Amino acid sequence: MSLNGQAYIVGAYEHPTRKADDLSVARLHADVAKGALEDAGLTKDDIDGYFCAGDAPGLGTATIAEYLGLKLRHVDSTECGGSAPILHVAHAAAAIAAGRCNVALITLAGRPRAADAALALRAPDPDSPEVQFELPFGPATQNLYGMVARRHMYEYGTTSEQLAWIKVAASHHAQHNPYAMLRNVVTVEDVVNSPLVADPLHRLDCCVMSDGGGALIVARPEIARQLKRPLVKVRGAGEAPKHAAGGKIDLTWSAAKWSGPAAFAEAGVTAADIKYASLYDSFTITVLMQLEDLGFCKKGEGGKFVQDGGLISGVGKLPFNTDGGGLCNNHPANRGGVTKVIEAVRQLRGEAHPAVQVQNCDLALASGIGGALASRHTAATLILERV
Amino acid sequence: MSTTIQISAADEAASKPQKPTGPRRIAAPRALPEALPFWQAATEGRLLVKRCQDCGETHYYPRDICPHCLSANTEWIESAGKGTIYSFSPMGKDEARYTLAYVTLDEGVTMLTDLVDCDPATLEIGHRVQVVFKPSEGGYPIPMFTPA
C-alpha cells in the first residue's frame, strides 16, 4: 500500500532552548508535545499513537506516555539514531492507513549539553559484535566522518573549500533565526581556517551541540481537513540501513541511495521537482553525500553543486536548511531528524523567515542519516506536499 | 520553559583552551566467545580473518555466520598482515593524537584500525601498510598498521 496521501503533518514545534540547565529530558519531550498540539489545534486526548526513539528516557513510549498522561492504542519506538523522527512520520502514516491510530505524536528531545555528556552518545553495548573490533581504535563521530570526507576528496577531487560552502549557506540562513546558536555569517576562509578537528574536517565543518528538541503531529486526512493549519501531505517515504557489509566497505555513498529512490517513486516526483530540502547536516560532508545519493546532482559532483552559494535560499539551485540546520541552529540530543521535518513544514506552510522563505514552496524533502556514514547508519527520506 | 538563548555559546566552546591530554590510551577489547581465536592469535602476533567454506567469501569483522550466505561453515585464515590505506583521519592533540583508518587487506576485506609509528602528514590513500600489534590497557594486543 502506498503512503501517498494517507496522512498529513498537522502540528510541528521546535523547542526554543539550546541549553536546558533546569529542564529534565522528560520535561523537554513534554514541552515539545504541548507545543505541537497547540500548533495543530488539538488536545492530548486526541492523540492515540506515539512515536519516539532512543533519546526518550526510560522505557521510551511507556515512560513518556505516563509523564504526559496519554491513553494510546499504537506505539512505535523504532530506534535508528538521528534519522528516527523522519522515519517515524512514515511509520505513523502507515499506522494511520492501517487503522491503528488517528493522531500520532512524535517527539525528540535531550540535554547532552547541559549534562556535558555529548561525547558519551551511548555507552557501547558489549554484546554488539563489532564493538571489540572498533572501540580499541578510537572511533569518534568526527574521525569516522573525516574518513568519509577524505575518501570523497580522493575519488572525486572534492575540496575543503567546496565543503565549506555548505557551512557558509547554513550561516546565511541562520542569521535570520533568533534562536540559532551560530548567527554570524561565515566565509569559506573562516571555515577552512578554523582548527582541524578530524583531518580533513575543520571545526566549522561540524554541527553544533545543543539541548532542546521538537515534535510533530501526524493525522489522518479527514482530521487534517478539519483543522485550521495549512495542509501538509505525506507524499512519499523511504528508509534503508547501510553497513560495513562484511568488510566490503565503500565510503563513497550512503543509504540515501536506497531510501531516496523509494521515496521519489512513492511520491511520483523526481529530485528536480523539489523546491526545498532539509538535509541532515551532522557534518558538511553528510550534506554533500545526500545531495548526490538523492539525485540532486551526479555522484562526485556535489562539490560543484554546493560551491558559490548553490544551497543558499534565493541564490542557489536548491535552498536547504533555512533554519540554519545542525551546522548553525541546533542539533538537539545529538540528533537532527525532527528539526529537518519541522523546517520543511514551515517552508510548505509559508511560515519560514521571510528572508529565507522559498517562493511557491509546494514540494519539500527531508532526509536523515542516523548513525555514522563510515560504519553503519539508517537513511530516511520523506517527501511532503502542500495541498 | 526556558527561552534563554545563548547565541555565543558554541563560539565560546570553539575558543576554549584544549584540555591537557596524556598519552594515547588503547581500550582493551571485550572479546566475545566467537572471536576468541582472533584475540588469542593476536597475542602471538598473527592477524586472522574468516572465510566461508561454502561460498568462499572472506569477511571481517569475523563472526560464526557468513554474512554473504548465512552458512555456519566458516573457518579462520591467517592474513599476511599487508594491505593498503582505504581512508584515514588524524585527530587529537599532542601525544594523544592518533590516526583512525580503514585498511584493505590483501585478502580482500577492509578493517577499521589505527595507523601508528608514522607522521600522518606523510600518509596517503593507497599507501602500503603492514600490521603491527600494540598493547591495550590490560587486554589483548591490538592489530594496527604502519607504513610498509
Structural account:
The complex is a heterodimer of chains A (387) and B (148). With 387 residues, chain A is an alpha/beta fold. Chain A folds into two domains: 8-115 and 211-232, Thiolase/Chalcone synthase (Peroxisomal Thiolase, Chain A, domain 1); 138-208 and 234-386, Thiolase/Chalcone synthase (Peroxisomal Thiolase, Chain A, domain 1). Chain A contains twelve helices and eleven strands. Chain A has a nine-stranded mixed sheet with strand order 3-2-4-7-1-8-11-10-9, with helices on both faces. Chain A has a two-stranded antiparallel ribbon with strand order 5-6. The model of chain A has no long low-confidence stretch (mean pLDDT 97). With 148 residues, chain B is mostly beta strands. Chain B has a single domain (33-147), classed as OB fold (Dihydrolipoamide Acetyltransferase, E2P). Helix content of chain B is 10%, strand content 33%. Chain B is built from two helices and eight strands. In chain B, strand 5 and strand 6 (110-115) form a beta hairpin. The radius of gyration of chain B is 20 Å and the shape is globular. Chains A and B meet through helix 4 of A and helix 1, strand 2, strand 4, strand 5 and strand 6 of B.
Whole-angstrom Rg of chain B = 20 Å
CATH architecture of chain B: Beta Barrel
Q: Please trace the helix and strand order of chain B, writing H or E for each element.
A: HHEEEEEEEE
Total number of domains of chain B: 1
| CATH level-3 fold name of the largest domain in chain A | Peroxisomal Thiolase, Chain A, domain 1
Q: Could you give the distance between the termini of chain A?
A: 21 Å
Q: What is the CATH level 1 assignment of the largest domain in chain A?
A: Alpha Beta
Low-confidence region ranges of chain B: 1-18
* Helix share, percent of chain A: 25-40%
Beta-strand content of chain B: 25-35%
Strand order of the largest sheet of chain A: 3-2-4-7-1-8-11-10-9
Instruction: Compute the CA-based radius of gyration of chain A.
Output: 19 Å
Q: Largest sheet of chain B, if any?
A: 5 strands, antiparallel
Number of helices of chain A: 12
